[in-house]
Q: What sequence folds into this?
């Protein structure tokens, strides 16, 4: 893995972004902000499932006016997503929003942009420039190429830089994975602003998991990306497990990495059932840990030596390895209880 690009550091609420700080997971509500109680329930649900930043669509003044209450009660910083109407940005800033997602070129009138920027600077609120391939100005950029996306982003950025504002984060998203990857690569050669990664309109759960993992994962492996969002049609809570799994799999954050063999003719235990039970039990453990579940003696011992904790399942008896060494033989009927004990033993030893 390439070392991470050293981007400019910005701060959204209590979260520092860029410059080698931890990569953060972002999500977005799909309930109007004006429905305050419902919005807050969803914000708390997203935060409880792993979102560290939450974006809200601010479509009218009633949405903007709800921000004060939502921000005061939210466990994570909130970002207002605003298009065209500068008054919504001003109201959101005055109501205590932690971040803005706003393309200044869409506001058009420079004095109104300056009004937003001056207030954002006063309140120390960063602005994210968000360029989506599908929403490029077709009169100027008829083809949604990576190069055109970067040109559009730089034009928006220039408006802010000319006013003296540099607390900027940038996203370049496309439903086409190759375009999204190339746009972020190109942009990273032009500016050092932190990047927010995502494959937009990635589809339903399985489709999004695959496409987001390829697009976001490729860039993260190249050292690019400071925040990310996995886009899933439907309940946004579903995004978060995928996002966390991407970061854990690339060893970019703590968490349990589960390894489980596919079923085959040699397997004598239900590896899927066991793996799912272990994921349910240990999936939220805030520890850097690898757990392997193997169903036969062909690949089992090799994986066991590389994993922190490994189970080699047998028809009546199974084997547990800790730190690459044989630990104990157990009845297959007691796997879950024995693995709980093994995890506890391993973590206690590691702490000493």
A:
């Amino acid at each position: 893995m390439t070392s991470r690009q050293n981007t400019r550091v910005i701060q959204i609420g209590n979260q520092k972004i860029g410059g080698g700080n931890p990569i953060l997971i972002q999500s977005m509500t799909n309930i109007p902000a004006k429905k305050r109680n419902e919005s807050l329930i969803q914000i708390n649900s997203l935060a409880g499932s792993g979102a560290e930043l939450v974006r809200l669509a601010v479509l009218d003044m009633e949405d903007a006016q709800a921000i004060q209450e939502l921000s005061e009660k939210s466990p994570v910083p909130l970002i207002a997503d605003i298009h065209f109407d500068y008054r919504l940005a001003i109201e959101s800033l005055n109501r205590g929003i932690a971040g803005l997602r706003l393309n200044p070129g869409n506001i058009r009138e420079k004095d109104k942009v300056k009004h937003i920027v001056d207030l954002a600077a006063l309140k120390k609120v960063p602005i994210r420039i968000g360029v989506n391939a599908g929403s490029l100005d077709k009169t100027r950029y008829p083809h949604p190429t990576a190069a055109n996306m970067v040109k559009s982003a730089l034009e928006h950025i220039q408006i802010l830089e000319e006013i003296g504002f540099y607390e900027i984060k940038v996203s370049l998203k496309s439903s086409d994975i190759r375009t999204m990857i190339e746009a972020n690569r190109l942009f990273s050669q032009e500016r050092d602003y932190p990047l927010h990664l995502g494959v937009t309109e990635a589809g339903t759960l399985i489709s999004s998991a695959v496409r987001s993992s390829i697009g976001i994962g490729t860039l993260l492996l190249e050292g690019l990306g400071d925040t990310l969002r996995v886009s899933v049609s439907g309940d946004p809570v579903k995004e978060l497990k995928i996002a966390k799994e991407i970061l854990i799999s690339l060893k970019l954050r703590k968490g349990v990495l589960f390894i489980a063999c596919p079923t085959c003719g040699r397997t004598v235990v239900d590896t899927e059932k066991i793996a799912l039970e272990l994921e349910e039990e240990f999936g939220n453990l805030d520890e850097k840990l690898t757990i392997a579940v193997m169903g036969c003696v062909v690949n089992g011992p090799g994986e066991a030596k590389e994993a922190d904790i490994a189970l080699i399942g047998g028809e009546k008896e199974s084997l547990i390895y800790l730190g690459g060494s044989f630990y104990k033989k157990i009845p297959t009927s007691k796997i879950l209880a024995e693995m709980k004990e093994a995890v506890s033993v391993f973590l206690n030893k590691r702490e000493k």
In short: The chain is about 40% helix and 20% strand. The chain has two domains: 10-253, 256-351. The radius of gyration is 23 Å. The first helix runs from residue 36 to 48.
